C-alpha cells in the first residue's frame, strides 16, 4: 500500500512563507506548553504523596487514597485543605489528610488536579472525630464531614479574621451565680486552674442557666483554653449568646447556626479555625467546631430530640461532645432541668460527678401542685380539663405578672367525637378524623380536607359534636373568655415567641415553644399531661418530665406551678418533688433489668423486606446479639432490631460498618441503619 501524502503540518516547507511561519510558531507554543505542564506535574521535592479523603458516598471507598503532589502545589496542598482529584473518570472533591514520602500503591500515582483553597478547614482533631463517629454509627467519614464543615464561601475566605480583644475574668461573679448548685463553685475553680472535671448538672427551677453556662465558659477561657457549647435550637443559642456577651464582653465568641446564612456561618467558622475565636455556641453542628486547645464541652438539655442528627450517620450531639472530650482531654458538662437516662448512666459508671441544687433551694424557688388531688375541695376536678383550682391560680398569679399555660396540642380542636355516644367523628369520604380549625369553621377531614357540615353519628344518628382533645387556640379562647381584660397570647407552630414582657398576660404555648418572660413567669400551668404520657415510646415518661420541667424552669423565684393529671403517676410525682435524678435512676434500673439502652446497645435496620433479609444474612454480628423482628413499620418497609450488651457495642458497630461496605461494593438494595436510635 503506497504511503499517504504528507500533510503541511508534518512538512512546513511545503507551505507558503507566511503560513510556514505561523505553523512554526504554533508548534513552538505547543512545545512550551507541554514543557510547562511537565514541569508542573513533576512531583514535589518534599513529601510528594498526599493522602486524600475523597468525598464519596460509597462505604467501600471510605478510606484515604494516595495522590501525587505536583511541585507547583507543594506549598498549598497541605493537610486540611480542599482539593480536586480525578476519581473514576470524574473530578471530585476531597480533603488532604496528610503528606508523606512513600506510598503503598504499586503503580504511578495520579496527580492532584488542583487545590480548591489553601485554607486548612479540616483540622486533625476533627478528622479523627469524624473517623471515630463513622465507625461508631456505621457510616462514612464523608457523611460526617458534610455535617462538620460548612460549604466554602470564596469571598468570605479572603477576609481576615479579627482577633478578639482583652477581657477580664470575674471569678467571684461566677461563683455567686453557681451558688446553690453544689459543687458548682468548685467545678468553676477546677476549670480556671486548667483541670478537666466532668459534671452532670441538674439545674434548679427559676435558674438563669445561660448565665451559669457563660460563667463556666469564662472560667475555662481564663485558663487559656477554648469552649464548645451546644444547645437544641436557635432560641437557646440567642440566650447563651447574650449571656456570653454579658460575661466575656463583645467579640469574644461566635455563634454557629444554619440560620446565620452561608456567608456569616463560614465567616464565624473561619474565625474559629484560624484561632481568632475560641468560644463557640451553636446547635448540633457546632459540636465539630475546630476550637483550638479545647478545654470544655457543654451540652444543654441533651434529651431534646433536636440533638439527634436526622441525616446519616445520625450522630447525637451528646455522644459527639463526650467522645471529643475524651479525645482532647477536655472537661464536660451535661446539663438540663432534668437528668436523662444516658446522663444518669454516666454517673452510675463514675465517668462524671453530679451537680445540682439542695432540696431546700428547690423548695425556696418553686411550689408544684397537682390540680384535682384528694386534698382539693373540687369534687369534679379529676374529670375537668381545667379544674377550678387552675382558674384560681391563673387569676391570682396574673395580677403579679405573666402566666404560662402549656398545652400539648397545636390547633383548635384536633379531634372530634359524638356528643352523645362519644364515638370518634370520621369523614364519610376517606374515614379520616374530623377536626375544627376555628370557632366559626365547620368540621373538616384532617386527611382529605372534605368539609362535613352535615355530619351525623354513624352509631346513634346524633348531630352534636364534642372535642375530647383541644389545641392551643381553643385553650386561649377559653381563657380569654374566663379572664376579661387580660391579654392572652399563643406561641406555637409558625408563630413561636422568643420572649414576652413582664406585663399582665397569659401565654398559651405548646411544648418547646414557651417564650422566656422578663423576670420569669408568676405561675406555670401544665394541661393535658396525660397526652404526653400516652405516647407509645420507650422514653414517653422521661420525655414528658423533660418538657414539663423546661416549662417550670421559666418560673420566677417563689412562683407556683399547677399540673393537671394523675397524681399517682411516677413522672408527675417526680415533678412535684423536683426529683428528676431519682426518676432517671429508677428508669435506668428498669432498663438494666430489661436489657434496654443505655445498659445495652441497639441498632435498627430498615428498608424493603427483601433488602432487610439480605442485610441480616450478610451481618456477622457478635455471638451475643439478639435479633428482634422483622416487623412492618410502613407500607412496603420492615425493620429489625439488633441488640447486644453494652460491652459488645463496639463489635456491633464494626459488624454493621462491614455490612455497609459489602452492600455498597455489591450494589445491593438500600437499607437504613441507625445505631442507638433516639426512639423506637
Written overview of the protein:
With 680 residues, the chain is α/β, with parallel strands linked by helices. It is 33% helix and 23% strand. The chain is built from 20 helices and 29 strands. Strands 6-13-7-12-11-8-10-9 form an 8-stranded mixed sheet, sandwiched between helices. Strands 14-25-24-15-22-20 form a 6-stranded parallel sheet, sandwiched between helices. It has a 5-stranded antiparallel sheet with strand order 2-1-4-3-5, with no helix packed on it. Strand 3 (82-87) and strand 4 (90-100) form a beta hairpin. Helix 5 (171-178) runs antiparallel to helix 6, helix 6 packs parallel to helix 7 (209-222) and helix 7 packs across helix 8. It is globular.
| Total number of beta strands | 29
Structural class given helices, strands, pairing? alpha/beta
N-C termini distance: 79 Å
**Quick check: average pLDDT?**
87
Q: Per DSSP, what share of the residues sits in E-state strands of 2 or more residues?
A: 15-25%
State the low-pLDDT regions, or none. 374-383
| Major beta-sheet overview | 8 strands, mixed
Provide the spatial order of strands within the biggest beta sheet. 6-13-7-12-11-8-10-9
Which of globular, elongated, flat, extended, rod-shaped describes the shape? Answer: globular
Rg over alpha carbons = 31 Å
Q: How many individual helices?
A: 20
Helix content: 25-40%
Amino acid at each position: 500500500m503506497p504511503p499517504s501524502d504528507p500533510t503541511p503540518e508534518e512538512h512546513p516547507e511545503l507551505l507558503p512563507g507566511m503560513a510556514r511561519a505561523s505553523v512554526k510558531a504554533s508548534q513552538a507554543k505547543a512545545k512550551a506548553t507541554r514543557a510547562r505542564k511537565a514541569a508542573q506535574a513533576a512531583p514535589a521535592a518534599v513529601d510528594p504523596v498526599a493522602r486524600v479523603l475523597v468525598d464519596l458516598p460509597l462505604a467501600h471507598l471510605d478510606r484515604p487514597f494516595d495522590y501525587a503532589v505536583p511541585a507547583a502545589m507543594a506549598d498549598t496542598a497541605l493537610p486540611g485543605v480542599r482539593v480536586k482529584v480525578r476519581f473514576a473518570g470524574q473530578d471530585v472533591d476531597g480533603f488532604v489528610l496528610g503528606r508523606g514520602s512513600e506510598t503503598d500503591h504499586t503503580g504511578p500515582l495520579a496527580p492532584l488536579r488542583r487545590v480548591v483553597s489553601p485554607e486548612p478547614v479540616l483540622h486533625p482533631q476533627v478528622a479523627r472525630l469524624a473517623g471515630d463517629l463513622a465507625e461508631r454509627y456505621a457510616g462514612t467519614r464523608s457523611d460526617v464531614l458534610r455535617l462538620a464543615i460548612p460549604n466554602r464561601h470564596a469571598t468570605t475566605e479572603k477576609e481576615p479574621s479579627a482577633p478578639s480583644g482583652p477581657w477580664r475574668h470575674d471569678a467571684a461573679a461566677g461563683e455567686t451565680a453557681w451558688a446553690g448548685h453544689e459543687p458548682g463553685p468548685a467545678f468553676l475553680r477546677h476549670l480556671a486552674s486548667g483541670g478537666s472535671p466532668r459534671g452532670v448538672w441538674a439545674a434548679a427551677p427559676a435558674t438563669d442557666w445561660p448565665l451559669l453556662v457563660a460563667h463556666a465558659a469564662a472560667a475555662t477561657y481564663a485558663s487559656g483554653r477554648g469552649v464548645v457549647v451546644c444547645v437544641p435550637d436557635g432560641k437557646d443559642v440567642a440566650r447563651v449568646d447574650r449571656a456570653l456577651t454579658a460575661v466575656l464582653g463583645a467579640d469574644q465568641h461566635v455563634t454557629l447556626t444554619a440560620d446565620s446564612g452561608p456567608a456569616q456561618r463560614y465567616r464565624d467558622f473561619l474565625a474559629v479555625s484560624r484561632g481568632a475565636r475560641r468560644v463557640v455556641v451553636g446547635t448540633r453542628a457546632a459540636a465539630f467546631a475546630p476550637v483550638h486547645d479545647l478545654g470544655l464541652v457543654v451540652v444543654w438539655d441533651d434529651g431534646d430530640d433536636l440533638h439527634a442528627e436526622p441525616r446519616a450517620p445520625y450522630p447525637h450531639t451528646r455522644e459527639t461532645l463526650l467522645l471529643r472530650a475524651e479525645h482532647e482531654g477536655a472537661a464536660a458538662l451535661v446539663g438540663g432541668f432534668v437528668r436523662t437516662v444516658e446522663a444518669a448512666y454516666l454517673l452510675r459508671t463514675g465517668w462524671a460527678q453530679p451537680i445540682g441544687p439542695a432540696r431546700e433551694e428547690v423548695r425556696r424557688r418553686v411550689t408544684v401542685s397537682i390540680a384535682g388531688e384528694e386534698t382539693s375541695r373540687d369534687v369534679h376536678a379529676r374529670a375537668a380539663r381545667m379544674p377550678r383550682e387552675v382558674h384560681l391560680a391563673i387569676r391570682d398569679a396574673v395580677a403579679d405578672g405573666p402566666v404560662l399555660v402549656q398545652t400539648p396540642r397545636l390547633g383548635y380542636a384536633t379531634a372530634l367525637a359524638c356528643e352523645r355516644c362519644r364515638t370518634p367523628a370520621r369523614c364519610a369520604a376517606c374515614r379520616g378524623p374530623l377536626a375544627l380549625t376555628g370557632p366559626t369553621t365547620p368540621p373538616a377531614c384532617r386527611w382529605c380536607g372534605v368539609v362535613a357540615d352535615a355530619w351525623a353519628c354513624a352509631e346513634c344518628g346524633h348531630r352534636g359534636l364534642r372535642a375530647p382533645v383541644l389545641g392551643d387556640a381553643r385553650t386561649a379562647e377559653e381563657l380569654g373568655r374566663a379572664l376579661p381584660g387580660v391579654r392572652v397570647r399563643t406561641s406555637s407552630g409558625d408563630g413561636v415567641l422568643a420572649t414576652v414582657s413582664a406585663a399582665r398576660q397569659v401565654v398559651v404555648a405548646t411544648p418547646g415553644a414557651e417564650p422566656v418572660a422578663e423576670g420569669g413567669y408568676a405561675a406555670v400551668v401544665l394541661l393535658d399531661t396525660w397526652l404526653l404520657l400516652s405516647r407509645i415510646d420507650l422514653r414517653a415518661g422521661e420525655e414528658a418530665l423533660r418538657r414539663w420541667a423546661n416549662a417550670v424552669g421559666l418560673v420566677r423565684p417563689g412562683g407556683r406551678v399547677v399540673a393537671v393529671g394523675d397524681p399517682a403517676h411516677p413522672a408527675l410525682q417526680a415533678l412535684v418533688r423536683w426529683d428528676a435524678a431519682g426518676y432517671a435512676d429508677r428508669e435506668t434500673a428498669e432498663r438494666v433489668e430489661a436489657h434496654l439502652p443505655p445498659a445495652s446497645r441497639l441498632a435498627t435496620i430498615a428498608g424493603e423486606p427483601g433488602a432487610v433479609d439480605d442485610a441480616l444474612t450478610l451481618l456477622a454480628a457478635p455471638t451475643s446479639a439478639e435479633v428482634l423482628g422483622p416487623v412492618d413499620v410502613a407500607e412496603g418497609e420492615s425493620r429489625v432490631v439488633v441488640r447486644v450488651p453494652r460491652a459488645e457495642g463496639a463489635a456491633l458497630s464494626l459488624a454493621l460498618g462491614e455490612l455497609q461496605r459489602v452492600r455498597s461494593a455489591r450494589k445491593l438494595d438500600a437499607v437504613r441503619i441507625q445505631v442507638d436510635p433516639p426512639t423506637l
